[in-house]
Design brief:
This protein has 96 residues and is mainly alpha-helical. The protein has a domain of 65 residues. 53% of the residues lie in helices and 0% in strands. Helix 1 runs antiparallel to helix 2. It is elongated, with a radius of gyration of 21 Å.
Amino acid sequence: MTEAEYIPGGKIPPECEAASGNVLTLTPLPKIDLRDAHAIRRELGSVYRDMRAGRLASQDGTRLAYVLDMIRKAYETAVLADRLELLERTINPRKD
């Protein structure tokens, strides 16, 4: 890749055109496992390792880490809300 072709983050966007003018086929990105706090932590580690190895620009990695942290906070909030609801139902059972 020449300096003129450099794209921030070091990745070529999937919607680019080939030199022949033909449109390249989009390949779907692999799904990232974000089902629990451990999976989110593993993904954060993966982003960190990619930044350290130079496979991901630090600016892009920082953005991804920020979004992953927001996802982690949302997950924690949902888990705590579920646990609180369960405790409240245990302490104050419905009287029908």
